[in-house]
UniProtKB/TrEMBL annotation:
Pfam family, one: Aminotran_1_2
Co-factor(s): pyridoxal 5'-phosphate
Keyword Transferase included in the entry's annotation: yes
PROSITE patterns, sorted: AA_TRANSFER_CLASS_2
Organism encoding this protein: Albidovulum marisflavi
Protein name as it appears in the record: 5-aminolevulinate synthase
GO molecular function: 5-aminolevulinate synthase activity
InterPro entries: 4pyrrol_synth_NH2levulA_synth, Aminotrans_II_pyridoxalP_BS, Aminotransferase_I/II_large, AON_synthase_class-II, PyrdxlP-dep_Trfase, PyrdxlP-dep_Trfase_major, PyrdxlP-dep_Trfase_small
């Protein structure tokens, strides 16, 4: 077989479909976020404004986080030195897990190197703990949840997105005695919509199912202490396992689950993705713990972020741009064509110094391609003004439809 020819063909398909992805080489500068330097292919640099980052609250630049990381690296060095079972558990890891457990009002928490790994490892391990487990998964769940459920070798049922009637029908069709788990997200990041969490919890109670909630795009952002949508709605006590990240609103790196002490003990004892992975560097754990602790009282950052998102959405709507608005902090602008989506992204960067990546298939279904903006508290009014004017000009330049979508 000509392996190089096969690789060429695979890459050509992506180019032909307009969804070949490129890395943009940027340098974040301490104290200047959301400004950064773009290292162009010709060797030159240009200042840009980042509008697609997941550091939702700018905590990756916050002095509280940076000071904690400096102190930890000066005290302990760089790496953790091993897996959690073999020399990789430090005071910083334990402190972070305690902060997370307190945040979600759970008995315990367990750290992973990413929320992807936390989802994959946990969901693929649960059937070992509950033989015959059936997992009911929302069709728009994140790829990490899908992969974990796929790999676990157990039974799965996929229910239509946020469709309670379909979920109920699937549960009713299965053996009442079989162990069951409903896996869903609080905020679905591509549209920014929220799950009917209370109704799902009610259904889970009715059928004796466990609840597994991904709060990745909500932790730090919602609730009086930033524990997520479940906290905002007063439902944390009805969620059995909460998954979330330390790499978005908390601005650092890592993922976790929070649950009962027995559940966490079982997952840490059986999940290969936890057992055989080197633990987070102590400095990263220290920075994440400082960020989680700070945001338990950091309501001003949440308020400013929500206000910037509201202003951006209202101004883009006023221009007739097709905003997908479910009232959350995520601002998707529907384009509907991968070539146009990539073209607008490239022109925003090249001509306006505005960096937003196109979101194409397979992240979203074909025909729903969009630009996904993530305002932060540190985006200034002039940043929003520049973005709105650029989008207005490019929408006209590309002759795109200004008919507004319904939420």
């Amino acid at each position: 077989m000509d392996f190089n020819a096969q690789l060429d063909a695979a890459l050509k398909r992506l180019h032909d479909e307009g969804r070949y992805r490129t890395f943009i080489d940027i340098e974040r500068r301490r104290g200047h976020f959301p400004k950064a330097l773009w290292n162009k292919a010709d060797g030159s640099q240009r200042e840009i404004t980042v509008w697609c980052g997941n550091d939702y609250l700018g905590m990756g630049q916050h002095p509280v986080v940076l000071n904690a990381m400096h102190e930890a690296i000066d005290a302990t060095g760089a790496g953790s030195g091993g897996t959690r079972n073999i020399s990789g558990t430090t005071v910083y890891h334990k402190r972070l897990e305690a902060e997370i457990a307190d945040l979600h009002r759970k008995e315990a928490a367990l750290l992973f190197t990413s929320a992807y790994i936390a989802n994959d490892a946990t969901l693929s391990t649960l059937p070992k703990l509950f033989p015959g487990l059936i997992i009911y998964s929302d069709e728009l769940n994140h790829a990490s949840m899908i992969e974990g459920i796929r790999r676990n070798g157990g039974a799965k049922r996929i229910f239509r997105h946020n469709d309670l009637a379909h979920l109920r029908a699937l549960l009713e069709a299965d053996d009442p005695a079989a162990p069951k788990l409903i896996a869903f997200e609080s905020i679905y990041s591509m549209d920014g919509d929220i799950s009917p969490m209370k109704a799902i919890c009610d259904i889970a109670l009715e059928f004796g199912a466990l609840t597994y909630l991904d709060e990745v795009h909500a932790v730090g952002m919602y609730g009086p202490r930033g524990a997520g949508v479940a906290e905002k709605l007063g439902l944390m006590g009805r969620i059995d396992i909460i998954n979330a990240t330390l790499a978005k609103a908390y601005g650092v790196m890592g993922g976790y689950i929070a649950a009962s002490a027995k559940m966490v003990d079982a997952i840490r004892s059986y999940a290969p993705g936890f057992i055989f992975t080197t633990s987070l560097p102590p400095a990263v754990a220290a920075g994440a713990a400082a960020s989680v602790h700070y945001l338990k009282t950091g309501q001003e950052l949440r308020d400013q972020q929500q206000e910037n998102a509201r202003v951006l959405k209202s101004r883009l709507k006023a221009l007739g741009l097709p905003i997908i608005d479910h009232g959350t902090h995520i601002v998707p602008v529907h384009v509907g064509d991968p070539v146009h989506c990539k073209k607008i992204s490239d022109m925003l960067l090249e001509h306006y110094g505005i960096y937003v990546q196109p979101i194409n298939f397979p992240t979203v279904p074909r025909g729903t391609e969009r630009l996904r903006f993530t305002p932060s508290p540190v985006h200034a009014p002039e940043d929003i003004d520049r973005l709105v004017k650029a989008m207005d000009a490019l929408w006209s330049h590309c002759a795109l439809n200004r008919q507004q979508l319904s939420a």
